[in-house]
Design brief:
Blueprint (H helix, E strand, L loop, with lengths): L1 H22 L6 E4 L4 E2 L14 E6 L5 E4 L5 E2 L5 H11 L10 E3 L2 H12 L12 E3 H9 L4 H12 L2 H14 L18 E2 L1 H11 L3 H7 L3 E4 L3 E4 L10 E9 L3 E12 L2 E12 L8 H19 L1 E6 L4 E6 L6 E5 L3 E5 L4 E7 L13 E9 L2 E9 L8 H6 L2
Antiparallel strand pairs: 1-15, 2-18, 3-4, 3-13, 5-8, 6-7, 9-10, 11-12, 12-13, 14-17, 15-16, 16-20, 18-19, 19-20
Helix pairs in contact: 2-5, 2-6, 2-7, 3-5, 4-5, 4-8, 5-6
């Protein structure tokens, strides 16, 4: 009898053990990250910054923007027209091959032309009754840099130049162009000013507009009354330069905002930059030529100084799920990350994983993320489980207390 009772007790205890093991919570699954250390490849190389004024250069489509000088507000001269074109194209978008609505030249427009011409400003000839489409007006604004065309477009867009200038300043604020303020649409009046960094950012915004990009690449254009007008950008077509805008007054000095295509690690990219407040020297009396020379030197040095590298590869293991009843499950990057920066720049990475993980999980389940930062650029990459994570098996439950 005692032996039977002992067997019963053992069976009951075993059953109780099985029940307890079956109903107890799954053991915790912990997530651990792999430390990722990365720097941009290549040998650091100095950029050829101008010896005067201020400058900035960046790569289109990236957050790379390197600056030189004080980056305090400085007069813009005709570089102001970059914002004039931005506002007009924002309000009246044009496809690359479109001409847009027609603008009729009035007696007031002719009076403005005559007044600007008498003051020695850069002008485009117009006559009363002439018809210019939006594209032609923008060509007159950006290629020969017609000050009177800036006034024409301002009134056409906003009714008055005062109302248009308000739009320009609102756009500058919206784009985050620090140190930027406009008082007119052409840059002739004293007071329109900005920094090289802000004008580089504005140029990048302009270059996203197909019509702008096409216009600034034109060496010349023919207008109905003014006839053939040549691009003031004498560097167009040299060193890969595809635009953008010049400016000069005795107060502003020579100013040049440029864009150029170049090869970075075998990939064609567009470099955008600005040099402002360049004044003539004994060796080079022309302030505008001084700006051209400074921009060219900066551009050539940028080709050597900028690198592009894939710092994270698709499928790269960046963490693990540590599972008591199975081998660990890798967590993989769901895509590659390619960055553009200066050689030797440190790439900051942070792997973010959940504090609690419950099994089972399917393969390729999104779980956590990798945050990659280089300068102002920030990229978030989701992480995926490399394979399925099964629930706790019965055999493991019964053999692990």
């Amino acid at each position: 009898m005692g032996r039977v009772l002992a067997v019963v007790v053992v069976v009951l205890l075993a059953a109780a053990y099985v029940v307890v093991q079956l109903v107890r919570p799954d053991p915790p699954v912990s997530a651990s990250a792999i430390r990722l250390a990365a720097t941009m490849p290549g040998t650091p190389s100095s950029l050829a910054w101008p010896s005067q004024g201020e400058a900035a250069v960046g790569v289109e489509g990236t957050s790379l923007l390197v600056t030189h000088g004080t980056q305090t507000a400085t007069p813009l001269a005709s570089v102001t027209k970059l914002m004039t074109a931005y506002v007009v194209l924002h309000d009246h978008p044009l496809a690359a091959t479109a001409t847009g609505p027609t603008i009729s030249i009035t007696a007031t427009d002719v009076s403005t032309y005559q007044s600007d011409k008498a003051q020695g400003d850069s002008v485009v000839a117009v006559v009363t009754g002439e018809q210019l489409n939006e594209l032609q007006a923008l060509e007159g604004l950006l290629i020969p840099s017609g000050d009177n065309i800036a006034s024409l477009l301002a009134a056409w867009d906003a009714g008055t130049e005062t109302a248009f200038v308000a739009k320009m300043n609102a756009a500058a604020k919206e784009l985050g162009l620090t140190g930027t303020h406009y008082v007119d649409a052409s840059g002739v009046a004293a007071g329109s000013e900005s920094t090289a960094a802000s004008q580089t950012r504005l140029a990048m915004a302009d270059m996203t507009m197909p019509a702008f990009r096409a216009i600034v690449a034109m060496p010349q254009v023919t207008l109905p009354v003014a006839g053939v007008q040549y691009n003031v950008d004498a560097e167009l077509g040299k060193n890969g330069i595809v635009g953008i805008k010049t400016g000069w007054t005795t107060t502003a000095g020579g100013c040049f905002v440029f864009a150029a295509t170049t090869k970075i690690n075998g990939r064609t990219r567009t470099v955008v930059g600005a040099v402002l407040a360049q004044f003539g020297t004994t060796a080079q009396p022309s302030a505008l030529t001084e700006a051209f020379d400074a921009a060219t030197s900066l551009l050539v040095s940028t080709d050597r100084a900028v690198e592009q590298d894939t710092v994270v590869h698709d499928g790269e293991v960046l963490g693990h799920l540590n599972v008591p009843w199975s081998t660990s499950v890798p967590l993989e990057a769901s895509r590659s990350v390619t960055l553009t920066g200066l050689p030797g720049e440190h790439v900051h990475t942070t792997v973010r994983l959940p504090s609690r993980v419950s099994a089972p999980l399917a393969a390729h389940r999104r779980l956590g993320s990798l945050v990659v930062r280089l300068g102002a650029e920030r990229v978030t990459v989701p992480l995926d489980t490399a394979r399925a994570l099964p629930g706790t098996p019965l055999s493991w439950r019964l053999t692990n207390v």
